[in-house]
């Protein structure tokens, strides 16, 4: 449905942990892992439904054993998910879904007349998978009420910080609180001989670090404007150029992709490889016959974050022309972006030093 699904490698490694907890019966270890997967699925399906109901556009979902981390497709969706009523809906949907599933499962198992010994300990164990199904859902709900970022309670805490200190500072503070609580959980798990506390603390720590890096990256790219990193010395092609002439231009340029302009108007984009392939397979022709007419443009005042999201959203999109008044004034490509960012960081560092002097 247009949303990229990613599974963190540690999610799969947890299967090894579950097998280790049931070394005498591998099938029960696999069953325990599937019980955890079911708890994550119940939570994330409910959150996806809530996101659709709120009109939030998602770009990707990263699955961890503590749940999913959402990456939003545009700044508006991210703001709506982190502010106002949207943050409460997204924060409460997961715990409510897990709690409701736990109650439904407990009612079904008890109503069926089975003796599942619901309140016997340990609550989550490969030896009693039906009881584990109930308590895994319940524990997932309780876990996310903790004020540890990136858990749901921690997201509400970050929202409270953000109203006073801004999103970037709030994200860093909330991530630090989450890492501290994760460390406490791991230590408590070792003292109480509880592997689940250790596992929960470990994955809260991983999730907090991922979110912290994401917030830091977002805060950087959203302060950089396209005019600061766009290439202003670039070559263009005309739709009436022959492919042989275009190849000659490619030989004398470091560009991989070229804007195609008719007068001042941008009409397409063509890549060096597309020109070479067309010459090999079809012989000489005109640029207009091989150029792509599907492209997006940026403005000089657009942020780099907006442009990166455009590049990510476009399948195979490697170049975004920067236009002003209908005229191409620069280009941004995946090829040159990292180099431009590195040089910009060095330029800003020098400017700060000179300002200090």
Radius of gyration: 26 Å
Strand content: 5-15%
Uncertain stretches of 5 or more adjacent residues: none
Q: How many beta strands in the DSSP annotation?
A: 7
Overall number of structural domains: 3
Helix vs. strand class = alpha+beta
What does this structure look like?
There is one protein chain. This protein is an alpha+beta fold and 357 residues long. It folds into three domains: 4-145, no CATH class; 167-222; 226-356, CBS-domain (Roll). 61% of the residues lie in helices and 12% in strands. Strands 1-2-3 form a three-stranded mixed β-sheet, with helices on both faces. Strands 4-5 form a two-stranded antiparallel sheet. Strands 6-7 form a two-stranded antiparallel sheet. A hairpin with a 2-residue loop joins strand 4 and strand 5. Helix 1 (9-21) runs antiparallel to helix 2, helix 2 (26-54) packs antiparallel against helix 4 (84-111) and helix 2 packs parallel to helix 5.
């Amino acid at each position: 449905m247009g949303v990229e699904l990613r599974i963190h490698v540690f999610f799969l490694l947890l299967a090894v942990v579950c097998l280790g907890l049931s070394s005498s019966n591998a099938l029960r270890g696999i069953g325990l892992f599937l019980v955890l997967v079911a708890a994550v699925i119940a939570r994330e399906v409910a959150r996806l439904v809530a996101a659709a109901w709120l009109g939030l556009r998602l770009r990707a979902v990263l699955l961890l054993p503590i749940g999913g981390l959402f990456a939003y497709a545009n700044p508006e969706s991210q703001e709506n998910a982190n502010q106002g009523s949207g943050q409460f809906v997204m924060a409460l949907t997961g715990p409510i879904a897990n709690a409701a599933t736990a109650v439904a499962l407990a009612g079904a198992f008890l109503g069926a007349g089975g003796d599942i010994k619901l309140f016997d300990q340990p609550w989550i164990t490969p030896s009693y998978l039906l009881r584990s199904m109930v308590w895994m859902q319940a524990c997932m709900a309780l876990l996310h009420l903790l004020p540890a970022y990136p858990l749901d309670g921690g997201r509400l805490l970050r929202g409270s910080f953000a109203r006073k200190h801004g999103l970037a500072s709030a994200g860093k503070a909330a991530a630090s609180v989450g890492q501290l609580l994760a460390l406490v959980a791991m230590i408590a798990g070792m003292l109480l001989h509880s592997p689940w506390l250790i596992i929960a603390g470990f994955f809260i720590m991983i999730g907090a670090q991922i979110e912290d890096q994401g917030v830091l990256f977002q805060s950087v790219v959203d302060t950089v404007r396209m005019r600061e990193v766009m290439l202003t010395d670039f070559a263009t092609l005309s739709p009436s150029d022959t492919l042989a002439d275009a190849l000659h231009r490619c030989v004398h340029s470091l560009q991989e992709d070229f804007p195609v302009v008719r007068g001042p108007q941008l009409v397409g984009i063509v890549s060096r490889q597309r020109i070479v392939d067309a010459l090999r397979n079809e012989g000489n022709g005109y640029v207009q016959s091989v150029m792509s007419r599907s492209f997006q443009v940026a403005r000089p005042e657009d942020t780099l974050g907006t442009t990166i999201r455009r590049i990510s959203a476009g399948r195979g999109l490697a170049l975004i022309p920067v236009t002003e008044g209908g005229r191409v004034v620069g280009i941004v490509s995946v090829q040159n972006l990292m180099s431009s960012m590195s040089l910009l960081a060095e330029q800003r560092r020098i400017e700060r030093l000179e300002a200090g002097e």
